[in-house]
Amino acid sequence: MSDTVMQNPKAQRRIDAKLLRDAMPAELRAEDSKSICQKIVSMASFGLCDIILCYAPIGSEVDVMPVAEAAIARGKTVAFPVCDKESGDMEFYSVASLDELCDGGTFGEKVPPVSDDRLITPTVGTMIIMPGLIFDKSGRRIGYGGGYYDKYIRRHEALFYSSMTIGVAYSAFLSDIPIPYSDHDISAAIVVTEKRVNFVRKIEKSPKREVRKRHYVPLLDADGNPATQKRRDFYNANYISPDEGKYKKPKAKDMT
Q: Which of 178, 151, 165, 179 is nearest to 207 (CA)?
């Protein structure tokens, strides 16, 4: 066993998970990815957010491009990461269409055009979708070891305190065994698999600063059109007082 594996408790799990995920049939990965995307788009957080920080999948990662397509169709700002391997930093740049993504990423992924006017500064209305090899039920994550997402989220308070940090993984990689955790690691608030949406940090439990800054967003239907909230119709009966409603034994004279 290498010194790296001995020193880092995540290292062997990272290696095993990567081999196992790569061994999944492509058809199964595609089917599960589609289900994961449908769950994300159906979430209330997706309707509320105005910016989505997505990623272009590589290898056997969950394909979340349908989420980006749905967000663009609804007029949301969609951005993708560009990683700097030397500094270990990452920035997100917006795209108006997925056709703007091109080859040339640090890890072989597609990246957006880089320019100052496309650079995204996260707000309280920002959702970030994080890839990972393994997540546990506390939202802790094993990625590829670069720490890009951990550093990026820590740099932006709006994301650090957000309930819209979304981890995505196939259900086989949602671990019952807690993942080793350090002070530098960032947990997901929600972990979405093809089977369910796992709420780790619910909106009502998020810090008050996020709730105070949240702005009004009109309600939209599944197609992104303005919708009105349905009101429950209550039964409108004539009022009967408690005394009138009591059972009264009939008198003998009333029975003749």
A: 165
